[in-house]
Amino acid sequence: xxxxxxxxxxxxxxxxxxxxxxxxxxxxxxxxxxxxxxxxxxxxxxxxxxxxxxxxxxxxxxxxxxxxxxxxxxxxxxxxxxxxxxxxxxxxxxxxxxxxxxxxxxxxxxxxxxxxxxxxxxxxxxxxxxxxxxxxxxxxxxxxxxxxxxxxxxxxxxxxxxxxxxxxxxxxxxxxxxxxxxxxxxxxxxxxxxxxxxxxxxxxxxxxxxxxxxxxxxxxxxxxxxxxxxxxxxxxxxxxxxxxxxxxxxxxxxxxxxxxxxxxxxxxxxxxxxxxxxxxxxxxxxxxxxxxxxxxxxxxxxxxxxxxxxxxxxxxxxxx
Amino acid sequence: xxxxxxxxxxxxxxxxxxxxxxxxxxxxxxxxxxxxxxxxxxxxxxxxxxxxxxxxxxxxxxxxxxxxxxxxxxxxxxxxxxxxxxxxxxxxxxxxxxxxxxxxxxxxxxxxxxxxxxxxxxxxxxxxxxxxxxxxxxxxxxxxxxxxxxxxxxxxxxxxxxxxxxxxxxxxxxxxxxxxxxxxxxxxxxxxxxxxxxxxxxxxxxxxxxxxxxxxxxxxxxxxxxxxxxxxxxxxxxxxxxxxxxxxxxxxxxxxxxxxxxxxxxxxxxxxxxxxxxxxxxxxxxxxxxxxxxxxxxxxxxxxxxxxxxxxxxxxxxxxxxxxxxxxxxxxxxxxxxxxxxxxxxxxxxxxxxxxxxxxxxxxxxxxxxxxxxxxxxxxxxxxxxxxxxxxxxxxxxxxxxxxxxxxxxxxxxxxxxxxxxxxxxxxxxxxxxxxxxxxxxxxxxxxxxxxxxxxxxxxxxxxxxxxxxxxxxxxxxxxxxxxxxxxxxxxxxxxxxx
Lengths: 320, 499
Hints:
The structure holds 2 protein chains of 2 kinds. By secondary structure, chain A is an alpha/beta fold. Chain A has helices spanning 2-19, 39-55, 70-77, 92-100, 136-145, 160-172, 184-192, 203-212, 259-273, 276-284, 294-315; strands at residues 28-32, 59-63, 85-90, 112-127, 150-154, 176-180, 198-202, 216-220, 246-254, 288-289. Chain A starts with a helix and ends in a 5-residue tail after the last helix. In chain B, helix 8 crosses helix 19 (433-456). Chain B has one domain (3-498). Chain B starts with a helix and ends with a helix.
């Protein structure tokens, strides 16, 4: 571990000297396409604070919310590729949304360059109050006995939560009804009141309710179990073959940012991710640290965009 | 822990020197940003969030909460003095508060707002301590069907808000409903009336619309008059309330507090809805409703108490269940998660210092706000003596900064300018903008809940009368509608018979 750190630091030093001895010579802007205090924003602030502290860089988190993250992405796509604009992106912006909108003012692939994937986070499918299911198998049985009787709440159309529910519907071949809400709060409200059968939720918002017994987690959407819930199966283990949704987060910069600068950012971020306090923070949020290489990350999100294309097309969430 | 023990324990936490300090900072900041048009608690809390990283959780939440309810105090100041509502919930305060200020009773209006808010804050704090968990179960029993029925009731009651032509009021409600349709449809995800403008895909912002309709249009209107350089308001007579004022304001404040305490618990626009509802109620109860809009003190006392009570009780779902009911509460959830606290049903048990400390700090904060605000009344009123050629540019500049700070978006400033002209046009046409605002706020919520209720009932419209709370609300709406329509109908029949 320590050696890896030293190596990373040495690599950073090597890259930094010839390429851009002076980078950064002014504050860096980390664009977040969502409102403050959401998952994307919290992650951005954790990373920005640590990288800033370790490298003595000044990193400003800039919230540009709107249009499912597109407002922020548009700004980054059109920013100068000088390493002073980063974006904290995620599965929506560089996975689902490119398939969702028929027309976007930027190109989700061509206008960006990957730096690294930060984390992968499971979504959780839980049973709401009074819904008589203790497992995913129960849900499938009930949905087959009474088609259309099972509903699931999500925080909105085209979110990774909606897609998680829809993928369940498609792969299990069952008829379940999507009930979209304006954000996770109202969705949870109706779930706790027992107005819907299931809820697909982000990890951090689920934890406290599972502890209190107000939500019964049936499965996590990732390929591995969540360390916090060793007893909750993955969707694959629960019998839905080929199922995997990871709500991932990563950092991208405008395309044509010099490779040396990208490497420098990559190394700085990876050093921050290796810190135990950052790791613990991310684990609390349900995140498993990834820290992939720039080209790995680019290949990953290109794959994500391709993966979600047919799913989004059958979900009816597309926007003309 | 029982309630008294809890409050006692909470006071101990709230009165720790550090926490008193943070409570004061929060209350003061809240007052200041409340006074600045457009700069709301959401933007401020978002800005301060990173600073709270390093604070103990309880201190952080006490400060952030102070900003929120402090803004309810401050928001009324500009609404009363220069017809610029600083907060959503002070829109209706412009109606009678501004009228009072123009009659030279600005001091009395400000004092009423501060005292009413204090009273409401104190009662609501007790309310949270005593009935918090119980109220949460009531809020949970509100499903989409109930919300829809509540919104119907709100819209029908809003016709009462108009003090002019009922026909124009209804027309304005529909304009508001139409504006509310802009943006992404929650149910289908489809864009409506966005014309490929990305900034419109989340709908038209509320604050830009309100600042334009009320503030900017008022500036334009004042500029058109020939004597705009000379103060057109009556000299300030008294800063304090007369005994008559007290007699009229006190019951209104009490009713506003009760109304606000209940509506605040419900998700989505509790504080705004509470102030509108309280104004409507006062006007309906008044012996002489024609005084409203011309400086009726009840029209300030009721809504100002209601919005402060609602601001405080909107913490209940967050504290008892971890459910955020508005944008500020969503930020609080974020602040708690950053602190490593998962907001949820166990918070009261696991973090008693946080729960009781926050509740007790609200009361401490309200005392501080009263102490901050009452002496300021004298200073604020002097704001009216600022020459208009200084005041108007200042209003416009601060509005622009405030609007920009909401989403860091210049587009919102253009919307404000546009609605400034729309507001001026409406003034010329003698159309009240308040029903428009209500339609704009309630319209999207109403549609969302109507469609979700039908989605959940698989298209069965009986859901609105099958559920008892919904049925009750629908019945009240029907009675109210008859009460509005029947007199007009009878009058017309009377006229017919006379011919």
